[in-house]
Specification:
321 residues, 17 strands, five-stranded mixed beta barrel, 8 helices, single chain, four-stranded mixed β-sheet
């Protein structure tokens, strides 16, 4: 059985389907999207009669001269008032204001960084939109511009928030909070952006008491990048208000030793994300905790979580999918 997350009238429902063929097929009867979303497959025609003649069709549909509506994507239907849209299961990330994203610095220019967040054009992070190491609110000067590479260097992985999206496709980021910083002592996983749902909390701490170690941090990027690493609360540089001391603490944290138990927990949580992505499930804290608990109950090491027998166990016996 495959669990598919679909959305109806503002609510989320879970529908179990026996196969993708039955999930994507439109029934002959008129669809009632308000009580449960349905799937469409590319090439489905005569949808106006099934979905209602008074409906408006948006993204994912093509209307011919004879008013025949045909779908051109594969995915669930979403209804907003009378507007019906089809969201593709696999699509490129479309940034929205307020999204938490993870990306790598691709270039350092005058008073700005270019950040790759998995969109056609690199996003821009201006020097005036970053959180200073000393925590003060002031105008950026020439010394701040000289220290740009010390703050974020080439190929550094950073977390940020989308500040603005413009008509030409460019995206502006900001890191005006201490929660957004350079990510060290961990690993990142790339999943489909559709598997990461927008929510109120994209920064979560995974409790490490049951594993005999400190807590670790998990960041769910809306662009499909998941960060799993040592909690930023353990980094001394983030709480310092002296620029020189903060820079030294951050450099020390880059090469600091991570305990074995913490490394194993990071690998276990990261492999749980990979398991969810392989099964096509939504990557959220609840599902990650379930996968970690099942792997611990079976006595599996983190490197053994990607074997096919464990995936079959999750599908057949645990009911996670």
């Amino acid at each position: 059985m495959i669990r598919v997350i679909v959305s109806g009238d503002g609510d989320q429902e879970q529908t179990n389907v026996s196969s993708f063929a039955t999930a994507y097929r439109i029934p002959n009867a008129k669809l009632n999207i308000r009580h449960g979303a349905s799937f469409v497959a590319p090439g489905e025609s005569n949808l106006a009669a099934h979905l209602g003649k008074g409906s408006l069709f948006g993204h994912g549909f093509q209307v011919s001269l004879s008013d025949d509506v045909t779908s051109n994507v594969c995915g669930p239907l979403a209804l907003v008032n009378k507007l019906i849209t089809a969201r593709p299961l696999r699509s490129q990330y479309l940034p929205e204001i307020g999204d938490v994203v993870l990306g790598r610095v691709s270039d350092v220019l005058a008073k700005r960084w270019k950040v790759d967040i998995d969109i056609p054009n690199d996003a821009v992070l201006h020097l005036s939109a970053v959180h200073l190491l000393d925590g003060t609110q002031r105008r950026r000067n020439y010394d701040d511009e000289l220290d740009m590479r010390d703050r974020y260097g080439d190929r550094d992985l950073i977390s940020a928030e989308v500040q603005g999206c413009f008509s030409d496709g460019s995206v502006a980021l900001h890191t005006r909070s201490s929660a957004y910083s350079r990510k060290l002592s961990g690993q990142h996983i790339q999943v489909l952006p559709t598997l990461v749902k927008r929510g109120k909390r994209h920064f979560c701490d995974f409790q490490g008491e049951n594993y005999g170690c400190t807590d670790i941090e998990v960041i769910y990027g809306c662009n499909g990048l998941i960060w799993v690493g040592q909690s930023s609360k353990e980094a001394p540089g983030l709480s310092s208000f002296d620029a020189d001391t903060a820079r030294e603490d951050e450099a020390h944290d880059r090469f600091s030793y991570v305990q074995r138990a913490v490394r194993e927990l990071i690998c276990r949580v990261a492999n749980s994300v990979r398991v969810l992505a392989a099964l096509g499930m939504v990557v959220d804290p609840h599902n990650i905790i379930d996968v970690c608990q099942h792997s611990t109950f079976l006595g599996l090491q983190p490197k053994e979580m990607m074997i096919s027998s464990f995936l079959n166990h999750l599908v057949r016996e645990c009911g996670l999918v």
